[in-house]
Amino acid sequence: MEQTRPNADELKDEARSAKVLAEAEQRQKAHRPPSPAAEDRPRRRVSSRTIRWLLRLILFVVLVIALLILYAKLKDFLTGGITITAPESLCALLPDETMGYSRFDFSNAILGESREKSEFVVLEQDVSVTSRVSQALANLALFEKSQLIRSYGTGVYSVDLSKLTEDDVALDNELKTVTVTIPHAALSYLTVDVDKTEYEETQKAIFAFGEIKLTNEQMGLLEQSIQDAMRAELETADMLAKADASAIAQVQKLFLPLVQAVAADYTVVILLADS
Length: 275
Fold this sequence. Notes:
The chain has helices spanning about 10-30, 50-80, 105-115, 215-235, 235-260, and strands at about 120-135, 145-160, 170, 175-180, 185-200, 205, 265-270.
């Protein structure tokens, strides 16, 4: 089989194409940017403006610190080194003994405590009364039945301290006494201890039979009469005097710690208000 030889024109075209390709590659290489690795990169240099800015900042910080130190020393110099010391105890806060105390030094403490004592109990007194209950058919003595009943109770006396005012507190610095005037004691209430009630044997006339039976109304009247009898016993002059004496002792015991908290060598005197 014969091989076909290229003619002269084809050879010329191939040579021309190869030359064109070579020239194109050379142009591409000429316009391609150089590789960073192939060239030395330029070094960064700190500008003189940056250096001046840093120096100014350092100078400003040093100046501020110096002014703060100078201000502290100048303040100590102007104030003269004043020092404040706290008292070692509450005694240092009390009034000077040479100056004496005022009534208000004590009245504030006393009135502050008394405001909560509207019914300050000063005495509890036991009491007993005997009642006689009788029944008779047609109110005839031959049909009468009677019985003695002994009842027990307790009376409670109190004083109202909540109404005390500054006028009720007096001070004597020479005698070192605080005088408080209080109202008289009064019977606040009484209670009847039903469980302690004693019933004696019923006494019966010749034609009387059975036990005494009371209606609800009669029982209510009996209980009221027992309370009235107890109240009468508790409100006698002797019992009220006993309650007043107890009130003086109890109120003095209440106020004395308050007064001595202000001045340890002062005492309390309790007086009763005029009726």
